[in-house]
Amino acid sequence: MEKAVCYVRVSTQEQALQGVSLEAQEERLRAYCTLQNLEIVAFFREEGVSASKPLHTRPEGKKLIEIVSKKQAAHVIALKLDRLFRDAIDALTCTRDWDQRGVSLHLVDMGGQTVNTATAMGRFFFSTMASFAELERNLIAERTTTALRHKKSHGEAYGPTPMGYDRAGDMLEANEEELGLIREMKSRREAGEPLRRIADWLNASGAPTKKGGRWYASTVSYVLQNALYS
Strand 38-47 to strand 75-78: parallel, antiparallel, or no bridges (unpaired)? Predict the structure, then answer.
């Protein structure tokens, strides 16, 4: 029996909204390995991790790559492409390295079909799907950016209530006291004052952040870069 490693992943949002289960994925992968006469030497379960993170930066993903690099398995098994990758470059770079090591990637359920990169046709389908997966991600990001820009320009509420405004139903109402602070922050920054010094000034004046915490250089930068204030 050839050795295989299996990988399952869910994000917190998927668990809450879609009921995606690690157990359901694991059951499918174990059944597939039995059918293909593959011995599972390791099973990696990634819980609460977004697919936007490259595989090698995830705790369990890093372990998977290490095992493959040591040639302790010849097959990597996942349910779908988006369990492992969402970025085309990450997907193609990683699988190219696996190909050179003689390691095959198996995607058990891609629209009801199995994809195996051990074959030329399998590699072709994988490359095509990786490109479409990244396209989908980029389109979602564009739509989200456009929607946020529209909400900001029309004074509509979006996400956490931003500094300088209070929420009134679905709309944002100006908080003149906070907007005054923001104007002073912008003025100081335009005069060349470092972000750290602006944060120190805000803390010394007793002005809290929108969440009631302390100011840091990163917090000041986040507020000043918000297009809502432009």
Answer: unpaired
Give just the sign of the alpha carbon dihedral 151, 157, 160, 163: positive
Which residues form the catalytic set? 11
The yes-or-no verdict on residue 147 having pLDDT over 60 is: no
The arithmetic mean of pLDDT across residues 130-156, rounded, is 59
Over the stretch 55-96, which tens digit does the pLDDT of each residue have? 889 999 999 999 999 989 999 999 988 888 877 777 778 888
Give the span between the Cα atoms of 209 and 172, in whole angstroms: 17
Q: 229: which DSSP letter?
A: G
d(Cα 124, Cα 206) in Å, to the nearest integer?
60
Is there a contact between 79 and 10 (Cβ–Cβ < 8 Å)?
no
Residue 144 has pLDDT above 60, yes or no: no
Structural domains of the chain ordered from first start:
2-144 (3.40.50.1390), 165-229 (no CATH)
> In the 3-class helix/strand/coil scheme, how is 88-103 assigned residue by residue?
HHHHHHHHHHHHHCCC
Residues sharing a CB contact under 8 Å with residue 175, sequence separation 6 or more, in sequence order: 164, 165, 166
Query: In 103-192, which ranges are continuous DSSP H helix?
Result: 120-153, 176-190
